[in-house]
Specification:
The structure holds 2 protein chains of 2 kinds. By secondary structure, chain A is an alpha+beta fold. Chain A is built from 8 helices and 5 strands, in the order αβααααββββααα. In chain B, β5 and β6 form a beta hairpin. Chain B is of the alpha+beta class. Chain B has 4 helices and 15 strands. Chain B folds into 3 domains: about 80 residues, no CATH class; about 80 residues; about 80 residues, no CATH class. Chain B is elongated. The chains are: A alpha+beta, B alpha+beta. At the A-B interface, α6 and α7 of A face β5, β8, α3 and α4 of B.
Chain lengths: ~200, ~280
């Protein structure tokens, strides 16, 4: 029920993180609770296509949602991940709080002193696995169909060049398939702008 | 002495009055009503703890000149959202227990009206969730079972649509509801029955002449010509139909191939892949 546009905006943007925050994403931190929380929120919110509750995260990580476990997760989010701007807290009501990642691609910004005394920035990016991005099935359907129509149009042209089909039929097919392809492209453009380049 | 007695009585009265108001404030429960994405203003109601409170919320309310909000679900005290039977008018009633403070969160969606002009009868698929031709924002709907309002000698068929149709085929159209929609069917007369009536005698004469000629040529030549046994236009049409089927199959194969690539590159999970594959070319 969460707005699709809001989720897509989160996927498209890249969030800058300082080194002390970027470390939560490192492979070396994979056994830490904060690392597990990030990946759990990503996975669950991609399944639900919306923000997730502490209890859901707790069940995913610990297999149970006892208060002590939920408190640990809440602490990890509020003391570390929210402060770094990686997780957003959405207050639906006084006792209904849910969480969502602010982005799915993060960039480490590091300042290094050069030998001349200048300050330069070096970048290193991290991407949450695409299978955990909250992208609706419809988007992948449209991309698959788009590829299918592209290939089919190439084949129709080649077949016409080889005299396999008469001109009238060729023109009808090209018109019909091109029209369908345009409709698909328009839909991708209007509903999922900016996403195609990231996924393809 | 009298003054002291008066003072004592006054102090008692003051104490009881204070204590009573304190107790009243302490025991008063509240109902906090809010709306996801602030589709309406939140408010708080004091609850009388001896009764069940009946919360009444309009099913629809104005968003702007061209759209409205419509109730979809609600959550009581942070529990999962429960669906509300969709209605366009009237009020949704919810009995709220008053034994403690409560919160109710309503979820409403934006809806736009869809008008179809230039037609006699039509239907939507899926139907309007509120049954009044208003549809949820971003929904995709089909206009089906369209009949013409043109009376005359010739049947009419839809030439094209004026309005934001994203696709159309025969007497149907598909639209994406991203704002108030007004779409009009533009009809054109179909002369093919007349052409058929005129063409039939001509075809009969031609067939007669061809057969006659064929008979004469057969009589003059003892060798039978096997090519005369097949009808050339029929063969050509069947070849075209075969080709259409082949290219349709090719299109599907390539689409499935692309979907497989998403799976192999781990862009989608296996579960998601299977779900999409099953419905990719579903009508």
């Amino acid at each position: 029920m969460f707005e699709e546009n809001n989720l897509i905006e989160r996927i498209i943007q890249i969030k800058n993180l300082k080194e002390n925050c970027f470390k939560y994403l490192d492979e070396s931190s994979k056994d830490l609770l904060t690392h597990k929380i990030i990946f759990s929120i990503a996975k669950l919110s991609s399944e639900k296509m919306g923000p997730v509750k502490i209890a859901e995260i707790s069940k995913d990580i610990f297999g149970e949602d006892e208060k002590s476990k939920k408190d640990l997760i809440r602490l990890g989010i509020e003391k570390s991940l929210s402060k770094c701007g990686m997780v957003e807290k959405l207050q639906y009501a006084t006792n209904d709080v849910r969480y969502l990642l602010t982005a799915y691609r993060f960039q480490r910004v590091k300042e290094i002193e050069s030998f001349r005394g200048d300050r330069v920035e070096s970048f290193n990016t991290f991407e949450i696995p695409k299978s955990s991005w909250p992208i609706p099935d419809e988007f992948y359907k449209l991309l698959s169909k788009k590829f299918g129509y592209d290939e089919a149009l190439k084949k129709i042209n080649a077949d016409f060049d080889h005299g396999v089909i008469p001109r009238g039929e060729y023109e009808d097919l090209i018109r019909e398939y091109s029209q369908n392809l345009t409709q698909i492209q328009n839909k991708i453009h209007s509903k999922f702008e900016g996403l195609e380049d990231l996924v393809n | 002495m009298k003054v002291a007695a008066v003072l004592i009585v006054f102090s008692f009265l003051l104490f009881f009055a204070y204590d009573h108001s304190f107790a009243q404030t302490d025991s008063r429960n509240t109902l906090q009503v809010s709306f996801v994405n602030n589709t309406a203003a939140s408010y708080v109601i004091d609850l009388d703890s001896n009764e069940i409170y009946t919360l009444s919320q309009k099913y629809s309310w104005v968003r702007d000149q061209n759209s409205r909000y419509n109730l979809v679900s609600y959550s009581l005290d942070g529990q999962d959202f429960s669906s509300i039977s969709r209605q366009s008018r009237g009020n949704f009633i919810l009995d709220v227990p008053t034994d403690s403070s409560r919160t109710v969160v309503f979820l409403a969606v934006t809806q736009y009206p869809v008008s179809v002009l230039g037609v006699n009868e039509y239907s939507f698929s899926p139907k309007s969730p509120t049954g009044d031709n208003w549809f949820d924002a971003k929904s995709e709907i089909k206009i089906l079972d369209i009949t013409s309002n043109n009376d005359g000698l010739f049947p009419y068929e839809i030439g094209y649509w004026e309005g934001p149709a994203i696709s159309s085929s025969g007497n149907s159209a598909e639209i994406l509801v991203d704002g108030p929609i007004e779409i009009e069917a533009i009809w054109t007369p179909n002369y093919s029955p007349l052409a058929f009536l005129i063409g039939l005698p001509i075809v009969a004469i031609v067939v007669f002449l061809v057969k006659r000629r064929h008979k004469i040529s057969q009589m003059s030549s003892p060798q039978p010509d096997i090519r005369h046994g097949t009808s050339q236009p029929d063969t050509q049409q069947s070849e075209i139909d075969d080709y259409r089927e082949k290219i349709q199959e090719y299109l599907k194969q390539k689409s499935f191939k692309k979907l497989e690539l998403f799976l192999k590159s781990k862009s989608i999970s296996n579960e998601k892949y299977l779900g999409i594959k099953e419905t990719l070319w579903e009508i």
